[in-house]
Here is the input.
Amino acid sequence: MDRIPLTDDGKEVRLLESRILFAVVFGGLLIAALLTRLGYLEIVRHHYYATLAQDNRISPVPITPARGMILDRHGVVLAENFPVFTLQVTPDRVTHMRRLLTRLQSLVALNAQDLRDFMRRLKEHKPFQGVTLRSHLSAEEAARVAVHLARLKGVALRARLRRYYPLGGLAVDAVGYVSRIDPSELRGAKARRFLGFHHAGQLGVERRYQKTLMGRIGFKDVEMNAQGREVKVLKRILPRAGDNLYLNIDAQMQAIGEQMLGNRPGSIVALNPRTGAVLTLVSNPVYDPNAFVDGIREKAFRKLATNPGRPLDDRAINGLYPPGSTIKPFYAYAALQAPWFHPHKHIVCPGYWHLPHNAHLFHCWKPLGMGRVDLKKAIEESCDVYFYRLAFRQGIDRMTRYLTDFGFGHRTGIDLPGESRGLVPTKAWIKATKQPWYPGQTVITGIGQGPLLVTPLQLADAVATIAHHGVRMRPEIVRGIVDPITHRVRYRKPHSDPAIPRKRKTSLRRLVRDMTEVVEGPHGTARAIGYGLPYKVAGKTGTAQLWSPEPGYKGKRLHSDALFIAFAPVPHPRIAVAVVVEHAGFGALAAAPIARALMNFDLLGHVHVRPQNRMRPEVALTRTAP
Here is the structure.
């Protein structure tokens, strides 16, 4: 019986040989492809990958320039910089963050708030970016970290300039402050503007002149070792420091205003009516801006935010107040332009007035009345009945038209951010409210009550317009910009708006003469501040009544804001002042003495008048600083 073979040896040999051949060919192709790729990388793409490797070894580091200084008109420093050490951690170079933080706590003081802030900032930054753990290290803490720095992977000790306000809260609403850049400011187009910067201005001049103060960022190419530490600097592009700013603010006058307000909430604005220079911009109470520079503590911020005095409110440019009787000169000016108005015509003030066919009484501040009153006496003694009748005769449209000519209801254009428009009941506003306008509302608007609201800056700007013969000058905080290299000063030119309409040439002269009687006249409401003055003052007192619910009181309680506007010396004014003291009663008692002190300082060089050395007005002018 024939044996049947179970395998075909020849076929199996041929199959094995074909597989070996395929493996050899496939392996050869792989080797050829590998060699081709290697040649491509080494020859064709050599420059690209060499540059990439170099970039991995060399890290560009931004150099933050020194922020420009802010000084008052006489060179007193209001904002400067001083060097501090900052402790930074780069997350992607740290193997165990919690262990590192525990070790750092033995070298520097780190409280729970520091750690919470650090963990929050970790989420806001990319892993390869350095995150500040604590700023403003003491010299001893910086020395301890420097000794152990070689064993603290991912930790860097940076020297930087910290913003500092040497006079604390003085003029804080004008100067503003800087704080750490918010993550929202690092998105979109703003990201490039703040590249390399850690702080940005938040209020006042610090914010308005952000670009001028910041300067130009610099860079350095730093060679890094395998552990990510700097070895040497290969290239450096120096930064350019920010420009310095000279303000029109007088630091001494500012301090006098803040001291005279004391603990009372209020605001003071003083202008040069000829140039619009802002000499004083007080918003009281004040707060220390240094706490905001590296991030204010939650407890401290809560204390500021809940303070009943509202120190964070900028009253000078945002505080909205009924102007009270300080608005009467502007209504008088409007009436003087009308052909039907006769300033010498007398009315009888019995102490009250009522609309025709209406029994509701509008009372004068003097219950028994003032008898026969013309325009001069109405302004001198602030007769409400006279201005009730005048408001009813003029009508709300004419009144508000002239108020807007003086700048009420509009921003003055001051070089500070966030200015309020105030509120003037114009036709458009009345229509927008969709409520009827009653004649009684016109009447009370005629004495500065009702819906009419103004800012202290608007009051100062408006009275400065009267002082400057009807020409409005734009209020300016910044006086000049100083190049930090050449020290050349670029002074800002005053900007004037068109003069207010005037149909009677003598109307402004008459108004100034009548306002002078408020201080100089025997029955003037502010005659107490005129005693012993070697110069003439034109002014107007005001008392604005407010019904306001207050915790701790039963029902509603009547409060009165004290106001005073003035300019001096007449007839060649050099200073215009507006003072508002909240809930202080009569303007003549609470606000007028503050204005007198500021005018004395500006014109005479001291606060109190010295009777033994009374100067004539022309002598006072020669002593006034330019």
Notes: The chain has 23 helices and 21 strands. The two ends are 137 Å apart (CA to CA).
